[in-house]
Design brief:
Its cofactor is Mg(2+). This is Phosphoacetylglucosamine mutase. It contains 18 helices and 19 strands. The mean pLDDT is 96. By secondary structure, the protein is α/β, with parallel strands linked by helices. Bound molecules: 1,6-di-O-phosphono-alpha-D-glucopyranose (G16). 1,6-di-O-phosphono-alpha-D-glucopyranose binds next to loops.
């Protein structure tokens, strides 16, 4: 493409997607995320970048997902998906941020600079898959994404409303046809097909029952489960709530993030004591479970629980298949409940590593194991299997002793049911249901494996959240001066106390996490630390109150 063709980049920007705001925007934990009305030029420019990225990757397909995931309806966002279905390579985040923030007048020259910097061959073909969530602002932004792709002569393909993990899956399949068919139907065939296969090998028994209630967060995940439900032939009896009708608002008082953070059941779901409920987030990439007991207490089974359930089952299958030479490992973040980490290392004897928040960090760390399980406590996670592991399991499924073959075949179905590209609420739901069924257990029995330390999460608004920097996988903060010392002093006065603070990469807040021996102490510890953040990091509005 001759440099003169870049004129069209400016023309599209000026005529259709002008930059109307000077607010600086940064590629954060999961792409750009802010109020939807500040995003159109950003999304257009990411369309340009996706084409450049595709060409740097020799024409392989890149994904663009329009979503603000767990955020409320007025927000939106965009993130890029790399050819293997994983998050955009981190070294490109700075490039994305630069392109998003230049003026329209500088857009053409900055685009040219980036093309040169990354050495993109602009004569190559470029392909970009675009998906969006259910927000009313998403279609307009998806159109801006397409225009960005067209401006640099790439080929956009719009998937309409899909879950974020479906888009990741389709990108991966488009670039590697051994993984599956790059369509929504292909996704159902693979994941739901594997679930049905496994159900034939593992009939329902024990305390497990097939009824599952689901909170769809009024987003896309519930809608897709409604399609899947019709093909389940009674293998799972889904009761779906919060599907987006009846005035229900996206992620408002419902969905995985609300349930996890507020530790309250969502509105809009019928609650039957001891009935397990799966709660999804707005774009279907997170899942937590919970139930309400006969005294109306909500009991949460979060991402840590799902991770431990997966680790214990995969360990059992590896033993039965006599494949224990494959190295299984688990990846968590600082938000992981201390009790879960203890259980994994001491009881399951599986190695654990702790990394920074953001699936991009977890995914990367999980790849260092033959089989890597990663989960954030907020319900975002999956399992990745190395080629070595897949080959070994495949060989055992053909040549092993009868019992080993059986376990290896189950593992192969399990692998097929997993969306390895990214955390996926729908795939995770089928994995969890499979394990509960295989173990013949109900939610109360699932809960018995370990006892969570009581914990609390709070948000504090400050003038500039980037004034907080952290180290040691976000467990300690290095600025502003004095804050970590203050946190240490506060924590030392609590039994089993632990607390950390970090700037969110998806909302304009500082997050505070605290755990302690009782709920009362965890609540008080979180509030004390929130006040320290407010005092030392430029709090805005009302100083957080201590619980009464
Ligand atoms: C995104 C990321 C997650 C992260 C979450 C919260 O989730 O994909 O890895 O845990 O944001 O991040 P932060 O605390 O930085 O705001 P989602 O579901 O919103 O895409």
């Amino acid at each position: 493409m001759p440099p003169s063709s870049l004129r069209v980049v400016y023309a599209f920007a000026r005529e259709m997607h002008p930059k109307t705001s000077d607010v600086f925007i940064q590629y954060g934990t999961a792409g750009f995320r802010t109020k939807a009305n500040l995003l159109e030029h950003v999304v257009y420019r990411m369309g340009l970048l996706a084409v450049i990225r595709s060409r740097v990757k020799n024409g392989r397909t890149i994904g663009m997902m329009i979503t603000a995931s767990h955020n409320l309806e007025p927000d939106n966002g965009v993130k890029l998906v790399d050819p293997d279905g994983e998050m955009l390579e981190q070294s490109w985040e700075e490039i994305a941020t630069r392109l998003a923030n230049v003026s329209d007048n500088d857009l053409e020259s900055t685009t040219a600079e980036i093309i040169k910097q990354v050495n993109a061959d602009m004569s190559l073909k470029a392909s970009v898959f675009i998906g969006m969530d259910t927000r009313y602002t998403s279609p307009r932004l998806a159109a801006a994404a397409s225009n960005g792709v067209i401006a640099l002569k790439g080929t956009p393909k719009e998937f309409g409303i899909v879950t974020t993990p479906m888009l990741h899956y389709c990108v991966k399949c488009r670039n590697d046809n051994t993984y599956g068919t790059p369509t929504e139907e292909g996704y159902y065939e693979k994941i739901v097909g594997a679930f049905k296969n496994i159900r034939q090998k593992l009939p329902v028994y024990g305390e497990y029952n097939t009824t599952l209630y689901v909170d769809g967060a009024n987003g896309v995940g519930g809608k897709k489960l409604n399609i899947i439900k019709k093909s389940l032939d009674g293998e799972l009896d889904l009761h779906l709530y919060n599907l987006g009708g009846n005035g229900g608002k996206l992620n408002l008082n419902c969905g995985a993030d609300f349930v996890k953070v507020s530790q309250k059941p969502p509105v809009g779901v019928e609650h039957v004591p001891f009935q397990r409920v799966a709660s999804l987030d707005g774009d279907g990439d997170r899942i937590v479970y919970y139930y309400v007991d006969d005294k109306d207490n909500m009991i949460l089974l979060d991402g840590d629980r799902i991770a431990t359930l997966l680790a214990s089952y995969v360990t059992e299958l590896l033993k039965s298949a006599d494949a224990t030479d494959l190295k299984l490992g688990l990846v968590q973040t600082a938000y992981a409940n201390g009790a879960s980490t203890r259980y994994i290392t001491e009881e399951l004897k599986v190695p654990v590593s702790c990394v920074k928040t953001g699936v991009k960090h977890l995914h990367h760390a999980a790849l260092s194991f033959d089989i890597g399980i990663y989960f954030e406590a907020n319900g975002h996670g999956t399992v990745v299997y190395s080629e070595k592991a897949k080959k070994a399991i495949n060989n055992i499924s053909k040549d092993g002793e009868p019992e080993q073959r059986k376990a290896a075949q189950l593992l192969l179905n399990f692998i097929d049911m997993t969306n390895e590209t990214v955390g996926d609420a729908i795939s995770d739901l089928f994995l969890v249901e499979t394990i509960l069924c295989a173990k013949g257990i109900n939610v109360k029995q699932w809960l018995q494996t370990y006892t969570d330390l009581p914990n609390r999460q709070l948000k504090v608004t400050v003038k500039d959240r980037n004034a907080i920097s952290t180290t040691d996988a976000e467990r300690r903060c290095t600025s502003p001066e004095g804050l970590q010392t203050r946190i240490d002093e506060i924590v030392s006065t609590y039994k089993s106390g632990r607390s950390f603070v970090r700037p969110s990469g998806t909302e304009d807040v500082v997050r505070v996490y605290a755990e302690a021996d009782t709920q009362e102490s965890a609540d008080k510890l979180a509030a004390e630390v929130a006040r320290a953040v407010f005092d030392l990091a430029g709090g805005v509005g009302t100083r957080p109150e201590l619980p009464t």
